[in-house]
Write a structure and sequence with these properties.
The protein is mostly helical and about 80 residues long. The protein has 3 helices and no strands.
Length: about 80
């Protein structure tokens, strides 16, 4: 039997929740999310693929405020 690989996709609500969690981690100040370039690139790519909506706007807002939030120095 042939198995086809189906790409794993997230719903817009799941992306929004993940975006909010990452923003909260950054705001807590114990981990600097912005130090992980691969994470930021993947996060932005997923947001860019979202359909235009209020959820997409909110996810983008969380992304931008996470980038602007201070965090501990990278490498610690």
């Amino acid at each position: 039997m042939l198995k086809r690989k189906i790409p794993f996709t997230r719903s817009d609500m799941e992306i929004l929740i993940i975006s909010r969690i990452l923003q909260n981690i950054q705001k807590a100040g114990s981990v600097n999310v912005t130090c992980d370039k691969e994470l930021l690139d993947a996060w932005k790519a997923v947001i860019d693929k979202m359909r235009p909506s209020d959820l997409a706007n909110a996810a983008w807002s969380f992304y931008q405020t996470t980038l602007a939030a201070p965090g501990p120095p990278c490498g610690q």
